[in-house]
Amino acid sequence: MELRSARRLRSQPPPGARRRFRPRRFPDGGGAGLISTLPDDMLLQVLARLCCARAAALTGALSRRWRGLWTHLTELSFRDISPDALDVALNQVACPALSRLKIKIPKRHTIHPARVSSLLGAAARLAPADLVFKVWGHTEDRNIAVEIPCFNRATSIKLDVVNLYLLPPVGGVQFPVLERLSISGCRFNIGKLILHCPQLRVLEAIIIVLTSKFEYQKPCLPNCSCDEPQNWRTQNIPLVALEEVEIEGFGGADHEVDFLKLLFRCATAMKRMTVGLAPRVHPASRGGRKMYSLFKAHPYVTCSVYRC
I need a surface site. Which of 22, 149, 154, 256 has the fewest CB within 10 A? Predict the structure, then answer.
């Protein structure tokens, strides 16, 4: 029998049989799809949605088109990463000025102060506007000073450096546009540090060790100011932009109460003060009563207290 159509007849697969799927091939050989043909700006927006530098870097396995693209992101988040891997990653970053840099090294990777200083220096070279930095130091190194480098573009800095001792940078103003500062987990000289932050608006501090003299302990860095008079209680520190303060771990010691006095005296624009009491401190204790007296003496500031 002749067929009027010249088309070839195809035999139909029997019912229930699986049809063979032939993958489509793409010019770059990677099979990443049409998304790889998008402009770099759009691909960077896709990578930014991952919120993880490691995941963004792994997209290089999809296609040659994606390889190294993550180094041009303006926001980078490194979580659960070893110090060695972080060194390699930071050296690959191509963006000269980041909008946000988030570094969180887990506790299992405790590092020495010199390595912390090196990582902070690498972070400073990327000039982030927003910095989050969390590391764990060794207990035996808690008295070794680590100098915070200069962050000229930073408007927000959060430092959670456990078992370490932070010093402000040597010289004049090193944080000219910093508006929000959060420090926890370490020893630090808050009085000297805030002198370097003329635009500071929000201060968050978790008290771990706040010595009565704010003194530096040896071994110290070169040009350390150990021998300077410890007259911070009577100093007038220019904190004209500071509006909000939160202190966690307040123990009620005399030097902690004196620090509250300094804040009330120097931060003339302060609007809110929040204090978290250490577990052993009772509101009716001597330090607690002094704190509440300060609050009553400054009714224009909204003050609140909670227990840590």
Answer: 22
pTM of the full predicted structure? Answer: 0.75
Peptide bond into 14 cis (omega under 30): no
- Tell me which residue of 122, 124, 140, 131 sits closest to 84, measured CA to CA: 122
Helix then strand then coil, in percent of the chain rounded to 5, is: 30, 20, 50
CA atoms within 13 A on the CB side of 132: 12
Q: Nearest Cα to 222, choosing from 122, 141, 114, 145?
A: 145
- Pairing mode of beta strands 145-147, 165-167: parallel
Average pLDDT over residues 138-167: 91
Cα distances (angstroms) measured from residue 65 to each of 35, 106, 132, 147:
10, 32, 30, 41
Which tens digits make up the pLDDT trace of 232-264? 667 777 788 999 999 998 989 888 898 899 899
φ, ψ of residue 176 to 5 degrees: the values are -65, -25
Query: CA distances (Å), 194 to each of 26, 32, 137, 179, 198, in order?
Result: 57, 50, 23, 11, 8
State the Rg of the chain over Cα: 28
Task: Please report where in the chains the tokens 């949605």 appear, as a residue.
Answer: 49
Q: Can you tell me which residue has the tokens 């590391």?
A: 135
DSSP per-residue codes, 30-54: S---GGGGS-HHHHHHHHHTT--HH
What is the SS3 string spanning 129-168? Answer: CEEEEEEEECHHHCCCEEECCCCCCCCEEEEEEECCEEEC
Contact 147, 121 (CB under 8 A): no
**What's the token pair of residue 6?**
């010249």
